[in-house]
UniProtKB/TrEMBL annotation:
It comes from Phytophthora rubi. It comes from the Eukaryota. The lineage of its organism: Eukaryota, Sar, Stramenopiles, Oomycota, Peronosporomycetes. Residues 55-93 are annotated as: Disordered. This is Uncharacterized protein. Residues 55-67, 75-93 have a biased composition (Basic and acidic residues). PANTHER family: MYB-LIKE DOMAIN-CONTAINING PROTEIN, SET DOMAIN-CONTAINING PROTEIN.
């Protein structure tokens, strides 16, 4: 009876250790997969942020060009108005 008990105990220990090794291997694989997907996620977020930043830069540049054009138009309008005033003043003299 003792021999069969020891044999059964050894078999249970072998099954338990095999199950633990299998579980460890699956956990390691999951950790590796998570690490890879984590890296992919980080790269995707970085790329997305770069695209957003590029869009913001383009929008800022467009807005700046619009401001410069408006400023130039005001300058030209003021210049034309000043020339018209000077012309009228010359006519009045």
């Amino acid at each position: 009876m003792e021999a069969s008990f020891a044999k059964a105990k050894r078999i249970r220990a072998l099954r338990t250790s095999t199950a633990l090794k299998t579980k460890l291997a699956s956990l390691e694989a999951a950790a590796n997969n998570t690490g890879g997907s984590l890296l992919e996620t980080i790269l995707l977020i970085r790329e997305e942020n770069e695209c957003k930043a590029e869009g913001r830069r383009a929008e800022e540049e467009k807005r700046h060009r619009g401001e410069v054009a408006a400023q130039e138009a005001r300058y030209l309008a003021d210049k034309a108005e000043a020339q018209e005033r000077r012309r009228e003043e010359k006519l009045e003299r």
